[in-house]
Amino acid sequence: MWRNIRCAQRRIPHQFDITPPSFVLPDDMRLWEVSRAQNPNAFWIWKPVNSSCGRGIKVLRSNLDAGMEKSLSHKKGVVQRYVEAPLLLDGYKFDLRLYVIVTSYDPLKVYLNPEGLVRLATQRYSNSPGKLQCRRMHLTNYSINKHADAYVKNLDLPTSPRSGTNCELPRAEGRTEDRAPAPTAEELETDAHCSSSSGEETKPQTSPDSGPLSSKWSLDELHGYFVAHGLDYNLMMERIKDLIVKALIAVEPPIVSQCHQGASFQGGSNAQALRGLGPNPSCFEIYGFDVLVDQNLVPWLLEVNILPSFSSSSPLDKRIKTRLIAETLTLVGLRPFDHRLIGQALREEREGQVSGLHTKVQAAPKSHTLNTLTQSTLWELGQAEWTTIAEAHDEFMRRGSLQRVFPTEDGVDRYTDLFACPRYANLVLAKWLHEGGEACFRPDAARLLPACAPRCTSWEQY
């Protein structure tokens, strides 16, 4: 992710400042040394390769001792500039786990789950250099903080800061749903030392202004906290959506290349022949975006997880993740498997091949080029283009509570120049959104569509 974002930063400076400066070690060890020399008071966070649940993560100072520097020069991992002025919730550091669904990269189609997780540390934050080893102060991973006595499970009760009421929640017992390993003896000793030497109560506040008494919040609860404290939640979320789109645009070139290499463009059935532009839509992805917000409400992308945990360590997790999975499967149009229909289709295909009657149907060709597309109208597009549009429209109709963050009518122009190269399918959807978008399928407008455009009979459900 960092290498692709860095490539985008070189191509368009200042547009992709969405993540702290990072270095992939050991390859970038020399570059990191130069950056440390230029920022002698900076903190850094080291993350080893092929790890999870906060294992092996360390917070470091720029002036490393010789032993640590030699050790890191031989290890594979990523070191990232530490965000030293994070926004705090009642003195506790937090980050956001946001769920992003990508149904296609060509064209790029991105949805954001409206609910995510707000993960709080269990020890009050301090940027003192002497506190860098306090993992439960600097790291918000559930797998680390769940072992703390101060960790409180969110029971997802129908109360929030907006209601002006709170309910004290019981402390969480040790949970193993995520199957994370127990902390090592060294980590336990470090955490115990940090807790005892801090001299501070680490249990969340119990005042009415302190928000829900739990170590993990929903975005709805965070919104209530922002309102109560005069913070602009909508501004933060708009910036986060911009960050999500830019991160996906940065990694789009290699992913689209792989999708095209692995896709069959010939098609072997009528359904494939009418699929429209780009590779066959045969996959989707649910990403876990980890975002940290600083004191200026600027979001910073920490990492993107391709396998976010769907375990339910609390009623809050269960509600959010269950709905996320259900709405995602509906969004992508997953159909129940019927072995009889599949078997019948396979028999008919075999019989056609044996008799020589089975012919491979070619996909409909593009009706324009990149150059002529910009000069044409929506009504002059052909079957392939309108099939792509219909797929995007049908998907949007199945979105449930998911929010489409790309493409959008006001976003296509803003991001067009950020792509490494223009994609024909992206430009088709941009033209459609500019010239009516979903309204093209209204009953009163559908009669104006060309003959090759599909008809929508369920507009009332929109």
Provide a compact summary of the structure.
The protein has helices at residues 2-11, 29-38, 66-72, 135-138, 142-145, 185-198, 219-228, 233-262, 270-273, 315-331, 339-355, 370-373, 383-397, 412-416, 424-434, 443-446; strands at residues 22-25, 43-48, 58-61, 77-81, 88-89, 92-105, 108-112, 117-120, 216-218, 285-293, 299-305, 403-406. It is of the alpha+beta class and 462 residues long. The relative contact order is 0.13.
Q: Mind explaining what this structure looks like?
A:
The protein is α+β, with helices and mostly antiparallel strands and 462 residues long. Among the domains are: 21-82, Dna Ligase, domain 1 (2-Layer Sandwich), CATH 3.30.1490; 367-461, no CATH class. Helices cover 36% and strands 15% of the residues. The strands form two sheets. Strands 5, 6, 7, 8, 9, 10, 11 and 12 form an eight-stranded antiparallel beta sheet that branches. Strands 1-4-2-3 form a four-stranded antiparallel beta sheet, covered by helices on one side. Helix 13 (383-397) packs across helix 15. The relative contact order is 0.13. Mean pLDDT is 84; it is low at 160-179, 205-212 and 265-274.
